Amino acid sequence: MKKILITGGCGFIGSNLAEYFLKKRYKVIVLDKYNFENSWGWLDKKKHKNLEIKLGDIRDYDFVNKCTLGVNSVIHLAALIGIPFSYVSPLAYIQTNIIGTYNILESCNVNKIKNLIVTSTSEVYGSSKYEPMDEKHPTFSQSPYAATKKSADELALSFFNSYDLPVKIIRPFNTYGPRQSPRAIIPNIAYQLLNKKIKKVKIGNLSPKRDYTYVGDLCEAFYKIHNSKKFGEIFNTGTNENITILELYNKIAKLLKIKKPLNVQRERKRKKKSEVNSLKCDNKKIYLHLKWKPKTKFNTGLKKTIKWIKNNQSIYKDIYNI
Questions:
Q1: How far apart are CA 104 and CA 73, in angstroms?
Q2: What is the enclosing helix (H) or strand (E) of 175?
Q3: 3-class SS at 52?
Q4: Domain map of the chain by residue range?
Q5: Tens digit of each residue's pLDDT (9 = 90 or more) over 103-130
Q6: Superfamily (CATH H level) for 3-175+214-237
Q7: Which phi and psi (to 5°) does residue 144 adopt?
């Protein structure tokens, strides 16, 4: 049985991805952040005999190196991802997203890992210069988060060019689905609409456009990239469609059949120079080489996500999580 290490595997995308590979009959080892509660996030080891969870710190090279021993492939997801918090503590993002990625790259190089996927983000592109945005689109860091992810991507490609490390980069546009953090826009809007105590939906900028991919489709993209021999390549993943935050709010409200006034709050807005105004994926490359394209219609994915949020309202709080 092949062994795969997934860093950040207890989180939203990571847990969905871990379960996807378990269904494909892989032995899955998850590396995630040590916590005193010994929490495994969204994963339940009792349900999966081929799942192993190791808690530690992606910033600790010794720990990361031990985790990569004896595995066939690695998918690196572990990162700090909240853009507003990167304004507060950019150093934490440098240490986690850049140093953490270095630890993965160096460990995989030393231990002769044959297959490594590093997870990027469409935020490295900044506001679109043209749409749809392909892998040749210029990159421009409008937040410390974006800068650290761009740096991690460049570091990964440098290891491919300098050491022949078999690395590939997946660059997802926005992802949504069950288990997503309440700080993300879709669960945040849905929860506020569902909560009867909330009379107005608190929100930030309404005009930015985003391209949303359902998490199940993204897992399939990871799987196809994992099985490919396209090393040293970057692959965008997205739907080639985008909508504004206001349009997204109206769509969720319509599906829920709940309408509330909007309360646009200054603290929820990104600074003007830091706001990425529009992202729209061009997924031609991954379709051409790997025959991947999203299968889930946006309304279908939203219905699945909203159903999950309805059933898990107790995990959400009416506070602004940066």
A1: 11
A2: strand 174-176
A3: strand
A4: 3-175+214-237, 177-210+241-279+298-315
A5: 999 999 999 999 999 999 999 999 999 9
A6: NAD(P)-binding Rossmann-like Domain (3.40.50.720)
A7: -55, -35
- Per-residue model confidence as pLDDT tens digits over 146-204: 999 999 999 999 999 999 999 999 999 999 999 999 889 999 999 999 999 999 999 99
Using DSSP, state whether 301 is helix, strand or coil: helix
Q: Give kind and range of the element (H or E) at residue 300.
A: helix 298-311
On whether the CB atoms of residues 33 and 41 are closer than 8 A, the answer is no
Residue written as token pair 């059933």: 311
Report yes or no: 7 and 71 within 8 Å, Cβ to Cβ: no
pTM: 0.96
Is the CATH number of domain 177-210+241-279+298-315 3.90.25.10? yes
Structure tokens given for 214: 């359902």
Q: Is the dihedral of CA 7, 12, 15, 19 positive or negative?
A: negative
CB atoms within 10 A of CB 247: 13
